[in-house]
C-alpha cells in the first residue's frame, strides 16, 4: 500500500473537487459521518466483534478523508467572510478549537468528584 504524503493527499482532494464539485463532496462528508455513527452503534450496542471493528475503522478512515478535504477547501477558498482575519486559515481555527476542547475536557475531568 502506498504511503501518502500530505501534499499528495491534498492534490487528490483538489482533483476530487474538480471532478465532482464542492457541494457533492460536502454531501459526501455528511453521508460518511452518518455511516460512521451507524458503524459505531453496531459495534458497541449490537455486536462487539472483529468484523464490526473493521467496519468502524473503514468508516473512520472515510470520515477523516472527507474532513481533510473540507478543511483544504475552506483553507483555499478565496471568498472568505469579510471578518475573516488576514493570514489566518480554517486549519488554524480547527487547531484552536481542538486545543480548546482538550483543555475543557481536562478541566472537567479534574473537577469530577468520585
Taking the sheet with the most strands, its summary is: none
Distance between the termini: 47 Å
Oligomerization status of the protein chains: single chain
Helical percentage: over 70%
Average pLDDT reading: 95
The percentage of residues in β strands lies in under 5%
**Total of DSSP H or I helical runs spanning 4+ residues:** 4
Secondary-structure content class: mainly alpha
Radius of gyration in whole Å, from Cα?
18 Å
The backbone outline, from C-alpha atoms, is globular
| Helix and strand pattern | HHHH
Q: How many E strands?
A: 0
Uncertain stretches: none
Any key phrases for this structure?
114 residues; 77% helix; mainly alpha; 4 helices
Structure commentary:
The chain is an all-alpha fold and 114 residues long. It is 77% helix and 0% strand. It is built from four helices and no strands. Helix 1 crosses helix 3 and helix 2 (22-46) packs antiparallel against helix 3. The longest helix is centred in the middle third of the chain and has 27 residues, at 50-76. The model has no long low-confidence stretch (mean pLDDT 95).
Give a summary of the structure in a few sentences.
The protein contains four helices and no strands.
Amino acid at each position: 500500500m502506498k504511503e501518502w504524503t500530505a501534499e499528495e493527499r491534498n492534490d487528490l482532494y483538489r482533483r476530487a473537487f474538480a471532478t465532482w464539485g464542492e457541494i457533492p463532496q460536502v454531501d459526501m462528508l455528511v453521508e460518511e459521518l452518518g455511516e460512521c455513527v451507524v458503524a459505531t452503534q453496531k459495534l458497541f450496542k449490537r455486536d462487539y466483534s472483529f468484523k464490526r471493528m473493521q467496519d468502524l475503522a473503514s468508516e473512520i478512515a472515510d470520515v477523516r478523508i472527507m474532513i481533510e478535504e473540507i478543511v483544504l477547501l475552506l483553507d483555499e477558498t478565496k471568498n472568505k467572510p469579510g471578518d475573516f482575519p488576514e493570514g489566518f486559515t480554517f486549519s488554524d481555527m480547527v487547531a484552536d478549537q481542538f486545543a480548546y476542547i482538550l483543555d475543557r475536557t481536562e478541566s472537567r475531568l479534574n473537577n469530577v468528584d468520585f
